[in-house]
């Protein structure tokens, strides 16, 4: 049995804050500062260049990748760390398109995270071969999977509403039409059980600063299904993906397996901060986490709907059809979220009118949910959001 | 006057080590652990998602970029941080090629760092339009600049020998032939004075973990000359380069100026570790640093040549023609470097026979150079490298 009360004590949560934004940036595991002090003082400072061997920096992207892979149903040696999610989307999509040179359609949906769509637009522009990006509504994606499509590129869980695609069903239909899949797990990894192997996913990517709690700007990951690894074309052919980086040979030869998806020198400090966060996941049963997440979501919806009639549910009501967040629509949602944040309930706002709340069982419990709704009720029923400064303030995140 | 003795005290240098490998990974500034503890405990842990505004994370890539730009003769707003050097080479080269669509030749040299060549091969393969990568010997590059060439992509200082290209002269010839330039400053930034504006460079890229002392895998930088910023095509079109990332609009619109060269969520921890290192540079006069660097190089060459006849100078003898490193050739250089490292003199080895020594005046002085040569002499004259374990050991860096 996962001991959620014990897990909560492994995070630093500021006094007076109920943190419902772990879907954007997870809180700091308490073990991080000491671990980072060790990495700085004992690895960088003392080992210097030798740290690439003695401290295991060189193998860290694969080692950490395998730890994350275990949370995603990925076999050993099929996940590697590095760069940002946008760069990893670029790598996965470019490799997938190169495997379907005769097809010109990239199928996504209009609820996908914009950066994924931007990256697809950038690749299409760079290739200059008439690739078309199609973005039907999420519910129309399944019908749009045809033999014309080269790649189906979707984010499993919608960043605004939390609506969850059926990865297995869509991947099966894609394969029946000869379509390759790229799954973005930004709002899935650490949020719910994922089984990439069982779903038959071809490529997957994700970030680690949300539900995995790796810290601001922590490195991304990429998964390539074992059967594709030796065929995957490498568009970002940096030296760390070379079969023998330290031979310094003049021609690029892709490395074996997932190693070819490495690009440049890995971000050692960022990867190191992520490691104590992954230690916590060793204690978590993902099915129990999922059950708790759905329970917390149902409690939150019930309480908000009973006490705040101004807010309209934007997420699926069925807990199994959403990720680990619940969103409500409210026309002045931006101002309302500012008012909540000033009162210690931190969620976030997404255009045009979405108030997002992450419900993350590692450090959020029923008591937090009830206390958060007390504050939301106060802000809504007393129109505490209706002030010039809340309406004028501009956020960057 | 730059006070080099005072600067040396701002670095942690391990007991019993003379560190001549700052050209690969710089040592840790003593201010880093406390600063990182602050970033972790006061920014990430306490500010959580608010840190993007309150701790300035969102503007950090531009702010840190400007600090580095001041060391490189780049105007404000023309350098931005992020990703790795390989990714930044990709961005610069892709943008430059898109500005010369009718030309198909990428000109580099056979002494360029292999990752730059690999990235060029990757772009050529992805574009599939018959681009050709030419790599003459470094001394033949100037003659190879013709009207056929789209982009001249060079590393200013050779990673093996330290030989330095004349950036201004080559850029002038390039422009006379309508060729755009991409300069890799990996071994220049923090090693010698660079004046990108005076040289007329079009694009430049570099890393920060070498002479800038940013830590293992610290983020890279990219420079785009002001007159090109609004035309530069964006191949890696991630959301952070969008003109309004938080509008979440479906179509990519590149940001103003250098901002479009941002890609994904910035690596906050890596950028933060770099900041105390940049504080040190505020105290440095680059011309005085260059003078010291050449003096240390001359002393090192004189002492080694007088005492170690087995080693043959691989670097230019003229100090003004090389960067801030001195390399020697020795057939068993790999084993010899292992023997040196075990005796506290840390340099590194590059295939096939290059022993590299970084001479970095921020923390290396004449006394270090003389004591290092004492050890080199001992290793060479007593053949201390000639043991099975030194010959068998395999390094990854």
Automatic annotation (TrEMBL), chains A, B:
<dbReference type="InterPro" id="IPR010111">
    <property type="entry name" value="Kynureninase"/>
</dbReference>
<keyword id="KW-0378">Hydrolase</keyword>
<dbReference type="GO" id="GO:0019805">
    <property type="term" value="P:quinolinate biosynthetic process"/>
</dbReference>
<feature type="binding site">
    <location>
        <position position="265"/>
    </location>
    <ligand>
        <name>pyridoxal 5'-phosphate</name>
    </ligand>
</feature>
<dbReference type="GO" id="GO:0030170">
    <property type="term" value="F:pyridoxal phosphate binding"/>
</dbReference>
<comment type="pathway">
    <text>Cofactor biosynthesis; NAD(+) biosynthesis; quinolinate from L-kynurenine: step 2/3.</text>
</comment>
<feature type="binding site">
    <location>
        <position position="184"/>
    </location>
    <ligand>
        <name>pyridoxal 5'-phosphate</name>
    </ligand>
</feature>
<dbReference type="GO" id="GO:0005737">
    <property type="term" value="C:cytoplasm"/>
</dbReference>
<comment type="subunit">
    <text>Homodimer.</text>
</comment>
<feature type="binding site">
    <location>
        <position position="155"/>
    </location>
    <ligand>
        <name>pyridoxal 5'-phosphate</name>
    </ligand>
</feature>
<comment type="function">
    <text>Catalyzes the cleavage of L-kynurenine (L-Kyn) and L-3-hydroxykynurenine (L-3OHKyn) into anthranilic acid (AA) and 3-hydroxyanthranilic acid (3-OHAA), respectively.</text>
</comment>
<feature type="binding site">
    <location>
        <position position="209"/>
    </location>
    <ligand>
        <name>pyridoxal 5'-phosphate</name>
    </ligand>
</feature>
<protein>
    <recommendedName>
        <fullName>Kynureninase</fullName>
        <ecNumber>3.7.1.3</ecNumber>
    </recommendedName>
</protein>
<dbReference type="GO" id="GO:0097053">
    <property type="term" value="P:L-kynurenine catabolic process"/>
</dbReference>
<feature type="binding site">
    <location>
        <position position="239"/>
    </location>
    <ligand>
        <name>pyridoxal 5'-phosphate</name>
    </ligand>
</feature>
<feature type="binding site">
    <location>
        <begin position="113"/>
        <end position="116"/>
    </location>
    <ligand>
        <name>pyridoxal 5'-phosphate</name>
    </ligand>
</feature>
<feature type="binding site">
    <location>
        <position position="187"/>
    </location>
    <ligand>
        <name>pyridoxal 5'-phosphate</name>
    </ligand>
</feature>
<dbReference type="GO" id="GO:0043420">
    <property type="term" value="P:anthranilate metabolic process"/>
</dbReference>
<comment type="similarity">
    <text>Belongs to the kynureninase family.</text>
</comment>
<feature type="binding site">
    <location>
        <position position="85"/>
    </location>
    <ligand>
        <name>pyridoxal 5'-phosphate</name>
    </ligand>
</feature>
<feature type="binding site">
    <location>
        <position position="86"/>
    </location>
    <ligand>
        <name>pyridoxal 5'-phosphate</name>
    </ligand>
</feature>
<dbReference type="InterPro" id="IPR015422">
    <property type="entry name" value="PyrdxlP-dep_Trfase_small"/>
</dbReference>
<feature type="modified residue" description="N6-(pyridoxal phosphate)lysine">
    <location>
        <position position="210"/>
    </location>
</feature>
<keyword id="KW-0662">Pyridine nucleotide biosynthesis</keyword>
<dbReference type="GO" id="GO:0009435">
    <property type="term" value="P:NAD+ biosynthetic process"/>
</dbReference>
<dbReference type="InterPro" id="IPR015424">
    <property type="entry name" value="PyrdxlP-dep_Trfase"/>
</dbReference>
<dbReference type="Pfam" id="PF22580">
    <property type="entry name" value="KYNU_C"/>
</dbReference>
<comment type="pathway">
    <text>Amino-acid degradation; L-kynurenine degradation; L-alanine and anthranilate from L-kynurenine: step 1/1.</text>
</comment>
<dbReference type="InterPro" id="IPR015421">
    <property type="entry name" value="PyrdxlP-dep_Trfase_major"/>
</dbReference>
<dbReference type="GO" id="GO:0019441">
    <property type="term" value="P:L-tryptophan catabolic process to kynurenine"/>
</dbReference>
<keyword id="KW-0663">Pyridoxal phosphate</keyword>
<dbReference type="GO" id="GO:0030429">
    <property type="term" value="F:kynureninase activity"/>
</dbReference>
């Amino acid at each position: 049995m996962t001991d959620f009360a014990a897990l909560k004590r492994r995070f630093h949560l500021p006094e007076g804050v109920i943190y419902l934004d772990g879907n954007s940036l997870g809180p700091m595991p308490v073990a991080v500062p000491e671990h980072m002090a060790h990495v700085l003082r004992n690895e960088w400072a003392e080992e210097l260049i030798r740290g690439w061997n003695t401290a295991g920096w060189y193998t860290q992207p694969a080692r950490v990748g395998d730890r994350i892979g275990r949370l995603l149903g990925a076999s050993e040696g099929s996940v590697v760390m590095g760069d940002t999610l946008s760069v990893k989307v670029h790598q996965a999509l470019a490799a997938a398109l190169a495997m379907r040179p005769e097809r010109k359609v990239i199928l996504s949906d209009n609820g996908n995270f914009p950066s994924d769509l931007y990256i697809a637009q950038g690749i299409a522009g760079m290739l200059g071969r008439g690739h078309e990006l199609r973005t039907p509504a999420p519910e129309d994606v399944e019908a749009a999977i045809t033999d014309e499509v080269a790649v189906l590129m979707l984010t499993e869980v919608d960043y605004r509403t939390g609506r969850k695609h059926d990865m297995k069903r869509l991947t099966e239909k894609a394969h029946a039409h000869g379509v390759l899949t790229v799954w973005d797990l930004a709002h899935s990894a650490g949020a719910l059980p994922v089984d990439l192997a069982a779903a038959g996913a071809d490529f997957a990517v994700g970030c680690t600063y949300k539900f995995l709690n790796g810290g601001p700007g922590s490195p991304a990951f990429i998964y390539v299904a074992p059967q594709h690894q030796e065929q995957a074309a490498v568009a970002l052919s940096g030296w760390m993906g070379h079969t023998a980086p330290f031979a310094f040979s003049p021609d690029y030869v892709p490395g074996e397996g997932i190693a070819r998806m490495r690009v440049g020198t890995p971000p050692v400090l960022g990867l190191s901060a992520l490691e104590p966060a992954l230690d916590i996941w060793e204690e978590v049963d993902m099915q129990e986490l999922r059950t708790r997440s759905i329970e917390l979501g149902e409690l939150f919806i019930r309480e908000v709907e009973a006490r705040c009639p101004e807010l309209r549910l934007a997420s699926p009501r069925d807990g199994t059809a959403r990720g680990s967040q619940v969103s409500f629509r409210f026309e002045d949602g931006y101002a309302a979220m500012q008012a909540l944040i000033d009162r210690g309930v931190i969620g976030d706002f997404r255009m045009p009118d979405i108030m997002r709340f992450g419900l993350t069982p590692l450090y959020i419990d029923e008591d937090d949910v009830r206390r958060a709704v007390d504050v939301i009720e106060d802000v809504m029923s007393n129109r505490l959001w209706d002030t010039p400064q809340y309406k004028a303030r501009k956020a960057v995140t």
